[in-house]
TrEMBL record:
Keywords: Cell membrane, Membrane, Transmembrane, Transmembrane helix. Pfam families: DoxX (PF07681). The chain crosses the membrane at residues 53-75, 95-118, 138-160, 167-185, 227-246, 258-275, 287-310, 322-343. It is found in: Cell membrane. InterPro entries: DoxX, DoxX-like_oxidoreductase. It is a multi-pass membrane protein. The lineage of its organism: Archaea, Methanobacteriati, Methanobacteriota, Stenosarchaea group, Halobacteria. It comes from Haloferax namakaokahaiae. PANTHER family: INNER MEMBRANE PROTEIN YPHA-RELATED, OXIDOREDUCTASE CATD-RELATED. One of its GO terms (cellular component) is plasma membrane. This is DoxX family protein.
Length: 364
């Protein structure tokens, strides 16, 4: 094992020990929830399922979604438009590493300056460490310097934090984000690409003294380059889990908080239905998007719906922490470009090369 690999392992181990020493994180009031009285989940669900109008709306929505999917598969309308859209999205594949870095780096920098650990509801007992961690890891990922190593450290820190504070599941999208960045690297533009270009050019002075590129970076890329095709798979499954968790546990399984949000922002004035139906409908919609992403079915359409949900939330809830959603915005945008990837329903449904054998993001 090279000294640099040993150094990276030592750094990761130190990060884990520091996080453990910080102690169990404390969760604050979740995002925009104004506080609420507890509501029994069983009674809440029963009240919705025994309301004929609510049941009709939910069943009608399910039938409509299934019907639209079936009609599209049967008729395949506007084939030239769909093909052009896919080809255009695929032409942006070289931007995926940069987009992934923005998706993870920006919210981490914001978390560092705001003093929270990945999620706005989680703070540690060591605010100085939390700030330094977020700002340092975030800026290194944004600049694309030591990208793969930094992503690995960030992933380890998140997993250790999650073991100490389950509330970090609210920021689960960092897992696929870090994994994807570790596979594709910094891409272009990035400091890693500049350094790699200088190290690969035998005419430069740097190529004579570089201790890292040929010994570590190049062999790692060669051994893992075949895995970059699975980046869309990793991102959509990770995001799917996050959506299902948010839809089920934060809405349907926490009806008191969700109903309080509906009342706080008078959401029934936007769509005049019972608050209970609002909560269940929103939760099931998020869960459905998550299921579609995990299955890789209509991935780009599901990503577009997710972006619409985020945008509506940000405009509809004025005090919602925008930075907390940047990672979700960026990752679903990456899926909009990459599509479903391998092991997806889309790959089975489409005969074109993009869905069967997706282009790999540029690895630098």
């Amino acid at each position: 094992m090279s000294s640099r690999v040993r150094g990276a392992a030592a750094l990761a181990g130190a990060m884990a020990l520091v996080l453990v020493a910080v102690g169990r994180a404390s969760a604050h009031v979740k995002y925009v929830t104004p506080g609420s009285d507890p509501v029994a989940v069983a009674e809440f669900v029963q009240s919705v399922l025994t309301d004929p109008f609510a049941v009709a709306v939910l069943l009608g929505g399910a039938v409509t979604v299934a019907g639209l999917g079936g009609v599209y598969l049967q008729l395949r309308p506007f084939p030239n438009d769909v093909r052009t859209f896919r080809e255009t999205m695929s032409s942006y594949q070289n931007l995926v590493p940069w987009l992934l870095r923005l998706s993870v780096g920006l919210p981490l920098v914001g978390a560092g300056f705001a003093g929270y650990f990945f999620s706005p509801i989680v703070q540690t007992g060591s605010p100085t460490f939390t700030r330094l961690f977020g700002i340092t890891v975030g800026f290194l990922i944004l600049f694309g310097f030591g990208t793969r190593l930094v992503a690995g450290v960030g992933l380890l820190a998140y997993l250790v934090g999650l073991a100490l504070e389950p509330a970090l599941l609210l920021a689960f999208e960092y897992v696929p984000g870090f994994l994807a960045i570790a596979l594709v690297g910094g891409g272009k533009p990035s400091a890693d690409h500049v350094i790699a270009s200088m190290a690969a050019d035998d005419r430069t002075l740097y190529s004579k003294i570089d201790p890292f590129y040929r010994r570590v970076a190049e062999p790692f890329v060669e051994r893992t380059s075949h895995l970059t095709a699975f980046v869309p798979t990793i991102v959509r499954i990770g995001l799917g889990i996050a959506f299902i968790y948010l839809g089920i546990t934060q809405k349907i399984m926490a009806p008191g908080d969700a109903l309080a949000v509906v009342a706080k922002y008078d959401l029934t004035a936007v769509v005049p239905v019972a608050p209970e139906l609002w909560v269940v409908g929103a939760g099931l919609t998020e869960a459905l998007v998550g299921v579609l992403l995990i299955a890789g079915a209509f991935t780009r359409a599901a990503s577009a719906v997710a972006i619409l949900l985020f945008t509506t939330t940000l405009f509809g809830l004025p005090d919602d922490p925008v930075l907390a959603h940047v990672s979700l915005f960026g990752l679903v945008s990456a899926l909009l470009i990459a599509g479903g990837g391998p092991f997806s329903v889309d790959a089975l449904l489409h005969s074109d090369e993009e869905s069967v054998r997706p282009s790999r993001p540029t690895v630098e």
